[in-house]
Write a structure and sequence with these properties.
By secondary structure, the chain is mainly alpha-helical. It contains 7 helices and no strands. It is elongated, with a radius of gyration of 15 Å.
């Protein structure tokens, strides 16, 4: 598929794929630039927290690039969904089961993970 087709914003699946990747950018920034981000990894009981935080950041860089540029889309979207569902579990631990995102719950990453599954489903259909 030509690169122009991957960025055709008249194709709704391109918009969803790009957004699923682009939403990782603030998370990447926070992991590497916001000192308080490490506190979340400590609170979620990832050990050693600093290693897990940087590992998550590296994964998010790879997923963001793959989704934004439409590379290995099926695999990137599946891995992104798994990554986001792990985030949901971690937030559930830290937020004591809160659901609503605006009060610290896991609603947003769950929605985002489901969107990544939709991207993967579409990519699977175009592969076969």
């Amino acid at each position: 598929m030509p690169i122009a087709d991957k960025f055709n914003l008249l194709n709704e699946m391109n918009i969803l794929r790009i957004i699923c990747g682009a939403f990782f950018i603030p998370h990447i920034y926070a992991k590497f630039m916001v000192p308080e981000a490490l506190g979340f990894f400590h609170a979620a009981k990832f050990k050693p927290a600093v290693n897990w935080m940087y590992f998550a950041g590296v994964i998010e860089v790879a997923l963001a690039l793959a989704l934004i540029f439409g590379m290995f889309t099926f695999y990137a979207a599946i891995l992104a969904a798994i990554h986001l569902f792990v985030i949901c579990v971690a937030i559930h631990r830290v937020a004591n089961g809160k659901w609503l995102w605006n009060i610290g719950g896991y609603e947003y990453p769950l929605f985002w993970g489901i969107c990544c599954i939709v991207v993967a489903m579409h990519a699977w259909k175009t592969m076969h």
